[in-house]
Design brief:
Number of helices: 8
Order of helices and strands: HHEEHEEEEEEEEEHEHEHEEHH
Distance between the termini: 51 Å
Radius of gyration: 20 Å
CATH architecture of the largest domain: 2-Layer Sandwich
Binding site for Mg(2+) 2: 111, 114, 278
Strand order of the largest sheet: 4-3-5-6-7-8-9-10
Bound molecules: 1,6-di-O-phosphono-beta-D-fructofuranose, magnesium ion
Shape: globular
Structural class: alpha+beta
EC number: 3.1.3.11
InterPro entries: FBPase_C_dom, FBPase_class-1, FBPase_N, FBPtase, Fructose_bisphosphatase_AS
Family: Belongs to the FBPase class 1 family.
Number of domains: 2
Keywords: Carbohydrate metabolism, Cytoplasm, Hydrolase, Magnesium, Metal-binding, Plasmid
Strand content: 15-25%
CATH class of the largest domain: Alpha Beta
């Protein structure tokens, strides 16, 4: 499908899908417009006056430091959805969802700026979004729309503000990557089809947390680090950008596995990433590209969230590798499979 514009892609989806597809398409189009405004400000970095993202603000609902740009992006996405077919809007930056049009059939959850600790360092950041059917009923409150499992998502995507400005989008059948063409002034499909290879030799994890992980994750990583001398019998490469969107983009383009597991630090018992507006949309995108996404053990998209800002351990990417991580949690043979040198002790604890 490479070469088609986002507009044409959305028009064909709206024409062939159910009648709600038109609403989904209208939302994606509005988000894409707002993302170009965010990109403009992001690209100015520290030159972007008082709103350049260099000053830190307060704390969000999850206790993370908010940057000016986190808040500004949130405002831009919320305003772009005024008048759109959206019943309610939830964001990392807002404690509670905002009610927009109660008669509309869709709900939008957003991480307005993902990877925002990277703003000042000029590393790729992005915006993640999830589109769900809005909960209906006389007693319904806006929060209920966001407490549905991710398998009910109708669409999910993210914008990447990097060397290229890109939109990764899944409308439920496949995952597409669009790159913004400054020549044409619109997003254009950049690849024929996205299909994550089953097998990989590249993992992404924040290694500085090694001592806080549970045994299963340490053993998995020990085995990757042991390379061709260990039970994997091949060399592994490692990446950590500390930007979920950038990491996901790389995995979509060339495979790999990403892990942000639970760990022993205070506040990290459920990992770092948020289920509703980070893990769920990423899992939807990844599964629609042939990969898988789990809590390191079970499927992300089957979880029923119990609150909007809930965190969740996350592993996603190449199917065989994600399945292998789960096996370290449940299969005692995974330890037996190792050469004696890599028995219980693990490389770092030898
Ligand atoms: O700094 P750490 O612990 O490595 O965490 C990095 C992770 O945190 C995040 O920045 C969290 O997202 P936010 O920036 O939206 O809070 C992810 O993009 C990234 O994968
Ligand atoms: Mg984020
Ligand atoms: Mg964020």
């Amino acid at each position: 499908m490479s070469g088609a514009t986002l507009e044409a892609h959305l028009a064909s989806y709206a024409a062939h899908g159910e009648d709600i597809a038109q609403d989904v398409a209208a939302i994606v189009q509005r988000l894409a417009k707002a993302a170009l405004d965010v990109r403009k400000i992001v690209s100015q970095g520290a030159l972007g006056t008082a709103l350049g993202g260099v000053r830190d603000g307060g704390l969000n609902a999850d206790g993370d430091l908010q940057k000016d740009l986190d808040l500004l992006s949130d405002d831009l996405f919320l305003s772009c959805l005024q008048g759109a077919p959206v019943a309610c809007y939830a964001s990392e930056e807002l404690e509670n969802p905002v009610l927009l049009d109660p008669s509309a059939r869709l709900a939008v959850a957003i991480d307005p700026l993902d990877g925002s600790s990277n703003i000042d360092t000029n590393i790729s950041i992005g915006t993640i979004f999830s589109v769900l059917p809005a909960a209906k009923g006389p007693e319904v409150n806006p929060s209920q729309s966001f407490l549905q499992p991710g398998n009910r998502q109708l669409a999910a995507g993210f914008f990447l503000y990097g060397a290229q400005t890109a939109l990764v989008l899944s409308l439920g059948k496949g995952t597409e990557i669009f790159v913004f063409s400054s020549r044409l002034g619109c997003f254009v499909a950049a690849y024929k089809s996205i299909s994550i290879p089953d097998r990989t030799s590249e993992f992404a994890i924040n290694m500085s947390n090694y001592r806080h992980w549970e045994e299963a994750i340490r053993l998995y990583v020990d085995d990757c680090l042991a390379g061709s001398d260990g039970p994997r019998e091949r060399e592994f490469n490692m990446r950590w950008i500390a930007s979920l969107v950038a990491e996901t983009y790389r995995i979509l383009v060339r495979g790999g596995i990403f892990l942000y597991p639970s760990d022993g630090r205070r506040g990290y018992h459920q990992g770092r990433l948020r289920l509703v507006y980070e893990a769920n949309p990423i899992a939807f995108i990844i599964e629609n590209a042939g990969g898988s996404a789990t809590t390191c053990l079970t499927r992300i998209l089957d979880l029923v969230p119990d609150n909007l800002h809930q965190r969740v351990p996350l592993a996603f990417g190449s199917r065989r590798e994600v399945a292998r991580v789960a096996r370290y949690h449940v299969d005692p043979n995974m330890i037996g499979e190792r050469a004696p040198l890599f028995g219980k002790r693990g490389l770092f604890r030898a």
